[in-house]
Each structure stands twice: as structure tokens, then as C-alpha cells.
């Protein structure tokens, strides 16, 4: 299958994930939709930021694409693909598939006029939502949570910790900035096998400072900003926002595992 758009998957990239998608049923009407084209349409939407109704005619109609997107979201298929690709990429780079250290940070973004949950971040002066992410030392996302921007970073970190799965069973240390100090450190130490380590900037330093260990998570946010769908939060539901972030990371990891 020839690529028509830069966001389309190559044959080698599609072969990495095609077995995750359900095979055609032996009964009933034969399937006429190509799942590869459905995935290409979703990646096109994430990368270009277009609306569902404005998907190019080269892809299946937008109602079909959206139906499968929502169905695979409900069955956590996107999440399983994301976790598998992260493990494969870590192994390709000579790391164990389960990370032992990571970093937490948040990013506040504006929302659109779509009715949705939102709040005001008094620190960044942004009305919208906040993206909380935990990344490994390579900058690959382990878990993501999207909340209203009014939610404190410490509460977002607790939400991330509660969402951790078996992929974090070897996690022992997480680097955080000063916004996570206080009661949160004791809360994590009492419930989990990993600990939070503060990385603070010196009071003598002025302007932008590249903090050790912490720059990795900041770089991940810059990777996400390369996808126009994530320039703002356009989604009605926070769970959809989380899936869009996972899809952006899936595209990045596929390009690293199987370069064009």
C-alpha cells in the first residue's frame, strides 16, 4: 500500500501493530473496511489537527473511523499498543522493557468552546486543562492523566500513581520539581515501592535553567506539541484527550522502531 500522506504508516510499521486488531469474523457480513486505513486516518487527524468531518476522502468515511476509534478506546486497545511499543523501543535501545526511574511534570493548555470540564490555572494564568505525565529516562510516556487546569500538580501526581500498571513494577525513583514537595512525598513512600526525589533550581540562577533529570519530561512535552491536535485540548472528554496523547507517542515510537 502506497503512502499518500506523511502521517501514513509504512508496511514495516503496520506489521508491528497489525496483530493487535481483531480478525474478521467467520459469520455475518464480510468486513469491507481496511483497519490500516482507519489507523492512518486517526494518525492523520492527530498530526494535522483537522476535525473528524474534514478527513480526506482517501480514508474511510469519518463516521466509520470515529466508530472504530471509540471502540478501540473502550477496549483499551490503543493503550496496549502504546505499552508494547514502549517496551520494544526500550529493548532496541539496550534498556530493560520495565523502567526503574522516571520523571513527572504537568502542562496546562487552553480548551475550545466545546462543553467540557475545565478550570483556571492561577500559576500559568490559563483557563483549560492540565496534562500530567510520567515518563521514563528516555522520555517515553508511561502513564498520562488529563484533568481540569485547576487541579494541583500534587493531586495530579497521585492520580498518575494510582493509574500505574505492571509495566512500572521495577520503578524505584521518580524525579519531580518543587511543586510536588510536601505531603505528597510521604504519601507515595507509604503506598508504593518507589520514592519521589526533588530536583530544585538554585535561587541564584536566573532565567531558563536546564535541570538534570528534569529536562527529559520537558522534551516530551515538546514532542507532543509537534502534533497540531495537541496544540489545544479540542476534546469533549478527558479520556479522549489521554488517548490522543498516547496516539501521538505511538506515532513517534513507530517512526523510531521502523524509520521511513
Backbone structural class: alpha/beta
According to CATH, what is the topology of the largest domain?
Answer: Nucleotidyltransferase, domain 5
The coarse silhouette is globular
Mean pLDDT: 93
Q: What is the second-level CATH architecture of the largest domain?
A: 2-Layer Sandwich
**Percent range for β-strand residues:** 15-25%
- Total number of helical segments? 8
Q: Please tally the β strands and state the result.
A: 6
Q: Based on the structure, what is the oligomeric state of the protein chains?
A: single chain
The H/E string reads: HHHHEEEEHEHEHH
Biggest beta-sheet profile:
6 strands, mixed
Number of domain units: 2
Unreliable residue stretches = none
Q: What's the N-to-C terminus distance?
A: 14 Å
- The residue fraction in helices comes out at 25-40%
For the record, the CATH class of the largest domain is Alpha Beta
Integer-rounded radius of gyration:
19 Å
Please specify the SSE layout and strand pairing.
Layout: H1 11-17, H2 35-48, H3 62-74, H4 77-92, E1 101-110, E2 119-121, E3 126-136, E4 141-148, H5 153-162, E5 173-176, H6 183-191, E6 195-198, H7 215-225, H8 238-257
Parallel strand pairs: 1-5, 5-6
Antiparallel strand pairs: 1-3, 2-3, 3-4
Helix pairs in contact: 2-3, 2-8, 4-8
Q: What this model shows, in words?
A:
- This protein has two domains: 11-74, no CATH class; 98-233, Nucleotidyltransferase, domain 5.
- It has 260 residues and is an alpha/beta fold.
- It is globular.
- Strands 1, 2, 3, 4, 5 and 6 form a six-stranded mixed beta sheet that branches.
- It is built from eight helices and six strands.
- Strand 5, helix 6 and strand 6 (195-198) form a beta-alpha-beta unit.
- Helix 2 (35-48) crosses helix 8.
- The longest helix is centred in the last third of the chain and has 20 residues, at 238-257.
- It has helices spanning 11-17, 35-48, 62-74, 77-92, 153-162, 183-191, 215-225, 238-257; strands spanning 101-110, 119-121, 126-136, 141-148, 173-176, 195-198.
Amino acid at each position: 500500500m502506497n503512502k499518500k500522506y506523511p502521517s501514513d504508516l509504512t508496511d514495516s510499521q503496520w506489521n508491528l501493530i497489525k496483530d493487535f486488531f481483531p480478525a474478521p469474523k467467520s459469520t455475518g457480513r464480510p468486513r469491507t473496511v481496511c483497519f490500516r486505513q482507519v489507523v492512518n486516518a486517526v494518525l492523520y487527524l492527530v498530526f494535522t489537527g483537522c476535525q473528524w468531518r474534514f478527513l480526506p476522502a482517501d480514508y474511510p468515511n469519518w463516521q466509520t473511523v470515529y466508530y472504530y476509534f471509540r471502540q478501540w478506546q473502550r477496549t483499551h486497545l490503543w493503550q496496549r499498543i502504546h505499552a508494547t511499543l514502549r517496551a520494544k523501543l526500550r529493548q532496541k535501545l539496550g534498556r530493560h522493557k520495565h523502567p526503574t526511574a522516571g520523571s513527572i511534570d504537568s502542562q496546562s493548555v487552553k480548551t475550545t468552546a466545546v462543553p467540557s470540564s475545565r478550570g483556571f490555572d492561577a500559576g500559568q494564568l490559563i483557563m483549560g486543562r492540565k496534562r500530567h505525565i510520567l515518563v521514563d529516562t528516555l522520555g517515553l510516556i508511561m502513564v498520562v492523566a488529563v484533568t481540569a487546569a485547576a487541579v494541583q500538580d500534587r493531586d495530579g501526581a497521585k492520580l498518575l500513581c494510582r493509574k500505574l500498571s505492571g509495566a512500572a513494577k521495577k520503578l524505584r525513583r521518580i524525579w519531580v520539581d518543587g511543586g510536588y514537595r510536601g505531603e505528597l512525598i510521604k504519601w507515595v513512600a507509604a503506598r508504593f515501592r518507589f520514592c519521589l526525589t526533588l530536583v530544585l533550581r538554585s535561587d541564584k540562577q536566573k532565567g531558563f535553567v536546564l535541570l538534570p533529570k528534569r529536562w527529559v519530561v520537558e522534551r516530551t512535552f515538546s514532542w507532543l506539541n509537534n502534533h497540531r491536535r495537541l496544540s489545544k485540548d479540542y476534546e469533549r472528554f478527558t479520556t479522549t484527550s489521554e488517548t490522543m496523547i498516547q496516539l501521538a507517542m505511538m506515532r513517534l515510537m513507530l517512526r523510531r522502531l521502523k524509520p521511513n
